[in-house]
Write a structure and sequence with these properties.
348 residues, mainly beta, Beta-galactosidase, Chain A, domain 5, 9-stranded antiparallel sheet, 5% helix, 44% strand
């Protein structure tokens, strides 16, 4: 196993570095210390060809100009917070408004747009990148000085683990995720409409027209949201279900996971044979099928368009601060926030 390190760009006099983790099977994961962005994941398909299975760019300028959070760690709070405010112990906190008057994925200068301190850790059976960042009290409107750590670890079983840890010196809120867009066809040869997704989930959150949870938890039974036995993504894009239409003809919905750390998320591309199994400690996963991916730029030579990638964002629920029935995103002073998600790649 080995790690490659090279300069990726410069940002305000600081060097942005790209790190590539390579295991003994030839799998590669490349990430930069700007936003902890995963720029490439290279894995084999059934015929032995190694190709990239995530959406990303080769320059920092493209990420800053065009990226809808490709590959980034987002926080302090993933997803939308209605009206960009929440109340904690009687104090109302006003966050940056960056999405139709609401707060999305940490705001204007969230975790995805800062340079993290990176260190390489090498073990006998794995290699990892450890990213650290101090989010200062008041950043984007959030209370508390928050020390964050994100670890990307690759082993020889083609398993890629993402771990998060956070500690604040004040009571605050925290809900982070990784926003990678997957496309198992390899090098964006096809869109993701024929990918088959299996989810161990019997319930999902209803969204309003602003794509914010209404608070209602709906059953997936007899709907295009039932992925328990496997379903092609195109079912939702062709659906007349009001929630599919509202999301832009597809999915942008949080699902409640019925199981954890037990093959609960399974993505498969029949053409290449590639499989991705995701296991997590998080209560849910937001399924986004890039229904709103804008045209007008290219992604490593492929024209951007709808349905080019699928996000499986393991996390707590969007707007949970305004819905007491949802799992809490509140982090007490000096409490240690932890979260872990494992991505297992294979083919058949």
């Amino acid at each position: 196993m080995r790690v490659l390190k090279e300069k990726f760009a410069e940002q305000n006099g600081q060097t942005v570095t790209a790190y590539t983790l390579v295991n003994d099977q030839g799998m590669e994961v490349t990430a930069i210390d700007y936003g902890c962005i995963i720029t490439k994941i290279i894995v084999p398909e059934r015929n032995g060809s190694f190709e990239n299975v995530v959406l990303g760019f080769d320059t920092l300028e493209e990420y800053q100009q065009h990226s809808p959070y490709f590959g980034a760690v987002v926080g302090r709070h993933a997803g939308r917070i209605a009206n960009a405010e929440f109340t904690l112990d009687g104090t109302t906190y006003h966050l940056e408004k960056n999405n139709n008057g609401h707060h999305l994925h940490g705001g204007l200068q969230g975790f995805d747009k800062v340079i993290w301190k990176a260190d390489v850790k090498e073990e006998k059976e794995s290699i990892s990148l450890e990213f650290k960042y101090l989010s200062k009290d008041g950043e984007e409107g959030y209370p508390g000085n928050l020390n964050m750590k994100v670890v990307y670890e690759l082993n020889n079983q083609n398993e890629f683990k993402v771990s998060y840890e956070g500690v604040s010196d004040q009571k605050t809120v925290l809900n982070v995720t990784n926003h990678t867009y997957f496309n198992l066809s390899g090098n964006l040869k096809e869109d993701i409409l024929n990918h088959t997704l299996t989810l161990k989930s019997s319930r999902f959150l209803e969204l309003d027209k602003e794509l914010i949870p209404t608070g209602e938890i709906l059953s997936v039974d007899s709907t295009p949201f039932d992925f328990r036995s496997g379903r092609k993504i195109k079912d939702g894009t062709e659906s007349a279900h009001p929630q599919n239409i509202l999301a832009g003809n597809g999915y942008d919905h949080p699902f409640l996971l019925d199981e954890h750390q037990n093959n609960e998320i399974h993505l498969y591309d029949k053409e290449s044979g590639r499989k991705l199994i995701i296991e997590t400690t998080e209560p849910g996963v937001v399924l986004y099928t890039s229904n709103q991916l804008e045209a007008g730029f290219s992604i490593r030579g492929t024209a951007s368009r709808e349905y080019l990638g699928i996000c499986l964002e393991t996390q707590g629920f969007p707007d949970s601060l305004n819905h007491p029935q949802f799992p809490s995103a509140i982090l007490e002073k000096d409490e240690v926030y932890t979260s872990e998600t494992v991505y297992k790649f294979s083919f058949n």
